[in-house]
Amino acid sequence: MTPADERRSEPVQVGPPAELRRAPKGAITPTAWFREHQRRPGNDGGCWYFASVPPDPAMESGRFDLPAPEGTCYFGATPATAAFERVGRFTAKHRPVPADFLVGRVVTEIDGRLLPRHAINLASRRAAVLGVTGELFTMSDYTIPQQWAHAIRQLGHDALKYTPRFTPGGHAVAYFGQAGPRPAPVVGHTSLRQILQQTGVRIAELPASASLTMADPDDQ
Q1: Which of 177, 167, 171, 165 is nearest to 63 (CA)?
Q2: C-alpha distances in angstroms, 28 versus 123, 136, 143, 194?
Q3: What is the pLDDT of residues 194-209, one digit of tens each?
Q4: What is the residue-wise DSSP string for 57-108?
Q5: How far apart are CA 28 and CA 13, in angstroms?
Q6: What is the pLDDT of residue 4?
Q7: What is the domain extent for residue 68?
Q8: Tell me: the pLDDT tens digits for 35-82?
Q9: What's the gap between Cα 136 and its chain centre?
Q10: Cα angle vertex 87, ends 66, 39, to 5°?
């Protein structure tokens, strides 16, 4: 690899600047928004859950999660946008989605009037002058995106808008609030399987490899 190739392959996205007060703002449309999640007991099915950065860095977290005692709840502008954040790891590699990966998963519609009216818009072209790059929305290390979310929250903002990783041109909102479940009204639930079938995503009626028990050849 040449020095030029090395420079191209290195991530350039860093944390937020010291001054964020001129960050671009955008309206959150008061229309339908959607969240993909595990269906749970309760009237909202577990939709309204604000996730925090876990104390153990090895544990899974969300891109723009906040440190406890606050958290983040994510919504996409369309059912497909919400769905692809769950299954994009398969579709991006042209692989069918394992059926057992969909068990108990739903896409919930909410009334957008329940979200803040405005948010910091990191997907705006004007965010480039603050140092925002497309890597902020795609990088696998969530430490830096979480730094941006924390800095924005510290300025008193209730949400940020961003480009979802698996939906080019799509729109998503990270809504901040007290960590944990915060039950609120929902419009309705649709199974993740149904959403994927409507969008033409292939589903493999086989278990995901993670759920398989490998047999020891010596036991045969």
Answers
A1: 165
A2: 13, 20, 25, 27
A3: 999 999 999 998 655 5
A4: TTS---TT-B-TTEEEEEEESSHHHHHHHHHHHHHTTT-PEEGGGSTTEEEE
A5: 26
A6: 55
A7: 22-205
A8: 999 999 999 999 999 999 998 878 889 999 999 999 999 999 999 999
A9: 12
A10: 65
Is 156 domain-assigned?
A: yes
For the stretch 149-180, pLDDT in tens is: 999 999 999 999 999 999 999 999 999 999 99
When divided into structural domains, the chain yields a total of 1
Is 216 inside a domain boundary? no
- Nearest CA-CA partner of 33 in 203, 191, 188: 188
Annotate the chain with DSSP letters as a single string: --HHHHHHHS-------S--TT--EEE--SSEEEEEEE--SSTTTT--EEBB--SSTTS---TT-B-TTEEEEEEESSHHHHHHHHHHHHHTTT-PEEGGGSTTEEEEEEEGGGS-SEEEETTSGGGGGGT--GGGGT-S-THHHHHHHHHHHHTT--EEEE--TTSTT--EEEEEEESEE-----SEEEEHHHHHHHHT--EESS--GGGPPPPPGGG-
Quote the pLDDT of residue 100. 95
Q: How far apart are CA 58 and CA 68, in angstroms?
A: 16
Considering the domain boundaries, does residue 192 fall inside one?
yes
How many Å apart are CA 151 and CA 165, to the nearest integer? 21
Give domain status of residue 137, yes or no: yes
The share of the chain scoring above pLDDT 70, in percent, equals: 89
